[in-house]
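Q: What residues go here?
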């Protein structure tokens, strides 16, 4: 009998809560309810992180990657950085995973990746560029992969760059923005 009374009490409480919740919401037809505004889709820019590590004065640094991220964001791209498996050892003398690089670069976990040990990053970079119709930021010419990824290794998809007078320059005007 106590179980029945407890269930009856819970049912009554649920009814009261649902009634109060309905009272708080204005009665508007579902079709006229405001929906959140959709954000515009930003094209993806895949950064060859291991390649950019040496762009500034040919010295090892994460600064060129950070500078590229800022420039790409300012130009309307969503950056995604892919590193070779050994990049953490180069930068910090220990393994660093994708989320670790994301923290260091001020990105979300989804925007930084490290390829598995023993695998080249190039097919991951070019595959993501193909799947997303994105651009690639690298000085690499990807000659070994041009046959497998002809569209992604073309001049309208690969952004080259470097530093001039201490400032990063990216040839974004040569690529198509999708």
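A:
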């Amino acid at each position: 009998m106590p179980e029945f009374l407890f269930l009856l009490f819970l049912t009554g409480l649920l009814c009261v809560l649902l009634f109060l919740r309905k009272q708080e919401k204005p009665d508007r037809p579902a079709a006229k309810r405001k929906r959140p505004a959709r954000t515009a889709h930003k094209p993806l820019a895949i950064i060859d992180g291991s390649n950019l590590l040496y762009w500034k004065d040919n010295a090892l640094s994460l600064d060129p990657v950070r500078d590229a991220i800022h420039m790409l964001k300012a130009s309307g791209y969503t950056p995604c950085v892919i590193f070779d498996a050994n990049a953490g050892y180069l930068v910090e003398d220990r393994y660093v995973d994708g989320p670790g690089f994301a923290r260091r670069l001020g990105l979300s976990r989804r925007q930084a990746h490290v390829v598995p040990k023993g695998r080249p990053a190039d097919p991951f970079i070019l595959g993501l560029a193909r799947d997303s119709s994105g651009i690639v930021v690298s000085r690499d010419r990807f000659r070994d992969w041009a046959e497998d990824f002809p569209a992604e290794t073309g001049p309208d998809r690969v952004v080259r760059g470097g530093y001039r007078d201490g400032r990063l320059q990216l040839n974004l005007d040569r690529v198509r923005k999708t």
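A: Context that may help when evaluating the design: The helical segments are 2-24, 49-52, 63-74, 87-92, 98-105, 122-132. The chain has a mean pLDDT of 85.
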